[in-house]
Amino acid sequence: MVNHITIRKATGTWVVRAGGAILGETSNAMELVEGDYPPVIYFPRSDIAMAFLDASDKTSHCPRKGDARYFSVVTKSRTLENVVWSYEDPKPAAEQVRDYLAFHNVDEVAVEQI
């Protein structure tokens, strides 16, 4: 695996949906590529309906990006645990995604370019 991170502005407009609701839409998304992993789209926090998100106690650490904080998405029918993360105090390699949110690719969550 290649040991580097590339972050660039994602082209076009992106939307994230969960539980039948649109959580956000933006034309200011960032695309983060880390080594051989698939690209991850990060949404500006200001373009996400934060009322649907509950902060979680879960955290994780990446040696290149820093400490991630997680959120759960509350839908009409259930809570999707820890499907959102954010690097709130990222390392320099990930500074461009400060104040951005990423969403796990699970059945109940869709991140799509429109």
UniProtKB/TrEMBL annotation:
Highest rank taxon of the organism: Bacteria
DUF427 domain ranges (all copies): 15-105
Pfam families: NTP_transf_9 (PF04248)
Xref: PANTHER family: BLR5716 PROTEIN, DUF427 DOMAIN PROTEIN (AFU_ORTHOLOGUE AFUA_3G02220)
Name assigned to this protein: Uncharacterized protein (DUF427 family)
Protein's organism: Sulfitobacter undariae
